[in-house]
């Protein structure tokens, strides 16, 4: 095991400048000294000393299709040479065709007509969805959301994100949320199957509507004070928690009974991360609104948006100018998004992701058998989780995971004579979960390499 890594002289000059000139409000340094990266390709990034790191989190699932994906990069380059920019109030072919692609796909899958509305990123698109929801419900500003849920850090998005620390210094700006327990089976009541616990959570939620004294429902007029339930079908920052397959179907039944919209936040789990275009597809329900971002452009150009049912977003209900961003529906972003759809439609992309995810999960399950500090592993497609615990296999152990992350970033692990680092992301309610979001283009040998590197980190953690 190596000593603490010291920044190179060149990096230290840059870090000193960062300390003086850069706001720390837009970043988080998870290790000290932080690495400065110089290039990337496929599943790897390289720092300024040309040390390679296998990346198993891919920019929080924004780069689903691999760093510097040649096909997507070329789509961007071609667009730069034709129509690189145009004001968002003007039309261009890419916006119309990308909207059509998303809307027709939703019609085929959910049987619902709808429209697509663009903005520059995930949080901004959450804000737009809040406008759509409030507009459609006569200005209701109360929402349901999940414990462990994350929807962004703008003022509106942080109001429906369960972590109080994101709004502690800023307060609320309109929206408020009531946070409902998510069926986190590993940490749920003992003695229930995963499906039984999912039904139990729905029943506890449904109890809020039994009488007017539960605080959310007026039975005399049949109206709820709440406009929508914001869900991440698979929790992201909350630790890639995967609910039972019966959960959303039963939850949607309760919502439909009481006129409450379901908004599916697909910002982190969309675009085949779970083996389907939208993660909500796994659960046999029809969402009212879908919010997307991140991997639509593989991280090349900021673009996000929403799809909403026709009744919620048609021009008579949601007229021109209801929201606006100078860079919404920008032609560089829509060009990459269109190429991404073409690329993933040429093969059974979902089946490929599911097969790789099964292989990766089997490797994690093998590690779990050999290392008692792994309390839980789970996965859907290539959204995988590995929960690090104390010797009892249950007590959350954030300190050990922090140690593993720092060791991975030293770049000193050897596999077949090759020196490598490993980039991991930390999530979970207790910040003790490795949330694995590798490139969907990752090869099977690279999955095996990732498992070997994880094994080395687990050995170090166990023997320290």
SSE topology:
Layout: H1 9-21, E1 37-41, E2 44-47, E3 52-55, H2 58-61, H3 70-80, H4 93-110, E4 114-119, H5 122-136, E5 142-146, H6 155-159, E6 176-180, H7 194-206, E7 217-218, E8 223-224, E9 226-231, H8 247-257, E10 261-265, E11 289-292, E12 304-309, H9 310-313, H10 331-345, H11 349-370, E13 374-380, E14 383-388, H12 398-408, E15 413-415, E16 418-423, E17 426-427, E18 433-436, H13 444-463
Parallel strand pairs: 3-16, 5-6, 5-9, 9-10, 10-11
Antiparallel strand pairs: 1-2, 2-3, 4-12, 7-8, 11-12, 13-14, 14-18, 15-16, 17-18
Describe the structure.
It is globular, with a radius of gyration of 22 Å. α11 packs parallel to α13 (444-463) and α12 (398-408) crosses α13 (444-463). The chain has two domains: 9-68 and 348-463, Aspartate Aminotransferase, domain 1, CATH 3.90.1150; 75-345, 3-Layer(aba) Sandwich (Aspartate Aminotransferase, domain 2), CATH 3.40.640.10. A hairpin with a 4-residue loop joins β2 (44-47) and β3 (52-55). With 464 residues, the protein is α/β, with parallel strands linked by helices. The model has no long low-confidence stretch (mean pLDDT 96). It has helices at residues 9-21, 58-61, 70-80, 93-110, 122-136, 155-159, 194-206, 247-257, 310-313, 331-345, 349-370, 398-408, 444-463, and strands spanning 37-41, 44-47, 52-55, 114-119, 142-146, 176-180, 217-218, 223-224, 226-231, 261-265, 289-292, 304-309, 374-380, 383-388, 413-415, 418-423, 426-427, 433-436. It is built from 13 helices and 18 strands. A seven-stranded mixed beta sheet has the order 4-12-11-10-9-5-6, sandwiched between helices. Strands 1-2-3-16-15 form a five-stranded mixed beta sheet. Helices cover 35% and strands 18% of the residues.
């Amino acid at each position: 095991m190596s000593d603490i890594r010291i920044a190179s002289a060149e990096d230290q000059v840059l870090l000193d400048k960062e300390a003086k000139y850069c706001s720390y409000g837009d970043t988080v340094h998870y290790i000290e000294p932080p690495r400065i990266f110089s290039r990337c390709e496929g599943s790897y990034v390289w720092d300024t000393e040309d040390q390679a790191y296998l990346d198993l989190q891919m920019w929080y699932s924004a780069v689903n299709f691999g760093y510097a994906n040649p096909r997507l990069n070329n789509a961007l380059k071609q667009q730069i040479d034709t129509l690189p920019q145009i004001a968002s109030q003007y039309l261009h072919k890419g916006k119309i065709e990308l909207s059509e692609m998303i809307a027709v796909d939703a019609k085929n899958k959910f049987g619902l007509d709808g429209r697509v509305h663009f903005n520059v990123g995930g949080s901004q698109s959450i804000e737009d969805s809040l406008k759509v929801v409030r507009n459609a419900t006569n200005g209701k500003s109360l929402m349901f959301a999940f414990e462990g849920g994350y929807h962004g850090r703008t003022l509106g998005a942080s109001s429906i994100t369960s972590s109080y620390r994101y709004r502690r210094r800023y307060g609320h700006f309109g929206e408020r949320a009531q946070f409902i327990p998510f069926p986190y089976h590993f940490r749920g009541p003992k003695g229930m199957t995963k499906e039984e616990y999912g039904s139990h959570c729905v029943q506890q939620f449904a109890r809020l509507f039994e009488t007017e004294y539960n605080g959310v429902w007026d039975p005399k007029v049949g109206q709820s004070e709440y406009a929508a339930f914001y869900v991440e079908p698979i929790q992201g920052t909350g630790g890639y928690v995967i609910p039972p397959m019966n959960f959303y179907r039963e939850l949607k039944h309760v919502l439909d009974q009481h006129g409450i919209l379901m908004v599916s936040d697909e910002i982190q789990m969309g675009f085949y991360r779970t083996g389907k275009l939208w993660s909500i597809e796994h659960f046999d329900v029809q969402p009212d609104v879908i919010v997307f971002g991140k991997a639509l452009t593989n991280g090349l150009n900021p673009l996000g948006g929403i799809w909403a049912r026709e009744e919620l977003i048609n021009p008579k209900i949601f007229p021109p100018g209801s929201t606006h961003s100078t860079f919404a529906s920008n032609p560089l972003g829509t060009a990459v998004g269109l190429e991404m759809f073409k690329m993933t439609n040429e093969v059974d992309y979902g089946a490929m992701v599911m097969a790789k995810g099964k292989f990766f999960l089997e490797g994690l399950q093998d590690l779990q058998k050999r290392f008692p500090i792994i309390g839980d592993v789970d996965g859907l497609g290539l959204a995988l989780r590995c929960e690090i615990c104390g010797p009892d296999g249950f007590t959350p152990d954030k300190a050990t995971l922090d140690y593993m992350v720092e060791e991975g970033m030293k770049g000193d692990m050897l596999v077949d004579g090759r020196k490598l680092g490993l980039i991991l992301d930390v999530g979970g309610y207790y910040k003790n979960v490795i949330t694995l979001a590798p490139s969907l283009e990752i090869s099977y040998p690279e999955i095996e390499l990732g498992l070997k590197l994880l094994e080395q980190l687990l050995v170090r953690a166990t023997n320290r």
